[in-house]
């Protein structure tokens, strides 16, 4: 009988060092959602940042898409253990949206059309770490993947990249969102396997 050392997970033949622990490489793009897919007409779509002082910064669809766009190519990692490499997006950096936002808080609650919420430290949305993405792989973002606009925060598990995003509330307290109150990890770092509370 062979001896297997504690902590041995086998060889990762696909993905190598780019694949976080416990993940497998996915070549498709699985669709996972917490509820039905909302359909938001572009003439009624808007995005808002609400500060702790009650100030609101708001963008309509034409205003958002008129802002300078970026085209990040990133790896994404789902809490259900699949990872997808070199995904190509187009959207607006959160740094651009926060240029005129004054705040002194540390936390953000993301909310979506359809009622979904998730929470993040504000620092995880800034300094080139997050985008509002409205195109994927050269095409308009499909509703099943979060279109017309989803949050893209690729350094965390993908449930933090809220689909159908509608706004951000800046808060002094770290309020857990939909999956976080259901037992998922509050932060969700794939490299530390922070899938569930206590990980």
Characterize the largest beta sheet: strand count, sense, and whether it forms a barrel. 6 strands, mixed
Terminal CA distance reads 32 Å
Number of strands: 11
Protein structure class = mainly beta
Poorly predicted runs are 1-12
Q: Mean of the pLDDT scores?
A: 92
The total count of helices amounts to 3
Strand content: 25-35%
What series of H and E elements makes up the topology?
EEEHEEHEEEEEEH
Shape: globular
Determine the oligomeric state from the structure.
Answer: single chain
The helix content is under 10%
Radius of gyration: 18 Å
Question: Summarize this, please?
Answer:
This protein is mainly beta and 199 residues long.
Report on this model:
- The protein has 199 residues and is mostly beta strands.
- Helix content is 7%, strand content 29%.
- The strands form two sheets. Strands 1, 4, 5, 8, 9 and 10 form a six-stranded mixed sheet that branches. Strands 3-2-11-6-7 form a five-stranded mixed sheet.
- Strand 2 and strand 3 form a beta hairpin.
- The protein is globular.
- The relative contact order is 0.19.
- Mean pLDDT is 92; it is low at 1-12.
Keywords:
199 residues, mainly beta, five-stranded mixed beta sheet, disordered N terminus
Itemize the secondary structure elements and their pairings:
Blueprint: E1 24-25, E2 46-50, E3 56-60, H1 61-66, E4 73-77, E5 82-93, H2 94-97, E6 107-112, E7 117-121, E8 131-136, E9 139-140, E10 150-152, E11 165-171, H3 178-181
Parallel strand pairs: 1-5, 2-11
Antiparallel strand pairs: 2-3, 4-5, 5-8, 6-7, 6-11, 8-9, 8-10
